[in-house]
Design a protein that fits this description.
The protein is mostly helical. Helix 3 runs antiparallel to helix 4. It has 7 helices and 4 strands, in the order αααββαααββα. It has one domain. About 70% of the residues lie in helices and about 5% in strands. It is globular and about 50 Å long.
């Protein structure tokens, strides 16, 4: 019960849940287009990577167990920290650059239904949450030195499932409906949107390890 209480008393858990839920409601009511949904989540993914880069750059102490560079074990030194942060940024950035081009092509081919105003509003909301969350994580890292290997790979564990679900749903939308008991036939994009929300929440818990205890509050009563 204590672990569950720690999870559900994490304000960012509720931010992730409400943020995703409102986007799903907006899409269902026709307020947010499918293109806009995908771009908002793309921006969320970019900020997840940015947050991770800042955390790595701000590390004071960390462990490097089972972490290799050029197939060689490394020590927890400043050189390891900076080379890992730079390589992560480049690798993560290239992945998102390719993804950006793919989304741009798909949006143009889909009639450019993108709502830039909604994208910008959500980008500011995500940026604000990321700033506070990252600050909390930096403070936590100084109390409990993290594994730089884990820090390097966990953002991918969070973003790959959610984008896989969304892109699959977007690709199959015109072809399939899913029969759901009580709800009846629904478009498959809704199912994948639901899977995205579940995976986002689950990986937030895994990455933040929020079941261990309450997160540090850098500002006021938030987080």
């Amino acid at each position: 019960m204590v672990k569950l209480k720690n999870i559900i008393t994490d304000p960012e858990f509720w931010f992730v849940l409400v943020f995703n839920f409102l986007i799903a409601i907006g899409y269902n009511n026709g307020i947010i287009s499918q293109d806009t949904v995908i771009w908002i989540y793309f921006i969320q993914s970019v900020f997840i990577g940015l947050s991770n880069t800042i955390r790595m750059a701000c590390l004071k102490t960390f462990t490097s167990d089972n972490f290799r560079i050029n197939n060689e074990e490394v020590n927890p030194t400043s050189n390891t920290k900076w080379s890992s942060a730079i390589f992560f940024t480049i690798h993560y950035g290239i992945f998102h650059l390719v993804y950006f081009i793919m989304l741009a092509v798909m949006s143009v081919g889909n009639g450019s239904k993108l709502d830039f105003r909604l994208v910008l509003i959500n980008m500011m909301i995500i940026a604000g949450n990321t700033l506070i969350s990252t600050w909390s994580n930096v403070l936590k890292d100084r109390e409990e030195p993290p594994s730089i290997g884990s820090m390097f790979f966990t953002p991918y564990l969070r973003v790959f499932p959610m984008h896989l679900f969304l892109m699959a749903g977007m690709t199959l939308e015109q072809k399939f409906n899913v029969q759901i008991p009580i709800l009846g036939a629904i478009n498959i994009f809704y199912m994948f949107l639901g899977l995205k929300i579940v995976s986002d929440l689950a990986m937030h818990i895994v990455v933040q390890k929020s079941w261990r205890g309450k997160r540090i509050k850098p500002v006021g009563g938030y987080i």
